[in-house]
């Protein structure tokens, strides 16, 4: 799903997208000429790999996201929000969902068995 930057105004626009088991929903709102704020919630399940044994398993996701979407190259500086740049004048919601999913997958995860092994202190 793509949304043109010029169609996002200063009033909040509610948006929801879901793909496989993950859904992203929130409000798009223009904050500056080339910037759109996206306060969203990411919910669902993501398949990840155990960092220790490599076993695949699913984790529950329920995260608040604060994203800033830039129409073209972003020249400012931000430490309170993640900035995502789009170069064709439109916001690609699927790309946002995919990149959030990818960042979850590169996090450190332990499957139940490895977690238990860690907690009993017998290593
Ligand atoms: Zn494991």
Please, could you describe this protein's structure?
The protein is of the alpha+beta class. The protein has helices spanning 93-105, 112-119; strands at 2-4, 13-19, 22-32, 35-49, 56-71, 82-86, 90-92. The strands form two sheets. The protein has a five-stranded mixed sheet, covered by helices on one side. The chain has a two-stranded antiparallel sheet with strand order 1-7. A hairpin with a 2-residue loop joins β2 and β3 (22-32).
Summarize the structure.
The chain is built from 2 helices and 7 strands; from the N terminus they run βββββββαα.
- The tally of domains stands at 1
Structural class: alpha+beta
Low-confidence spans: pLDDT under 50, at least 5 residues?
Answer: none
Shape from CA axes?
A: elongated
Query: What is the N-to-C succession of helices and strands?
Result: EEEEEEEHH
Please estimate the helix content: 10-25%
The molecules bound to the chains, other than polymers, are: zinc ion
How would you state the average pLDDT, rounded?
92
- In percent terms, what proportion of residues is strand? over 45%
Number of strands: 7
The main sheet comes to: 5 strands, mixed
Put simply, the count of helices is 2
Spatial order of the strands in the main sheet?
A: 2-3-4-5-6
Which value, in Å, is the CA radius of gyration?
A: 17 Å
Distance between the termini: 48 Å
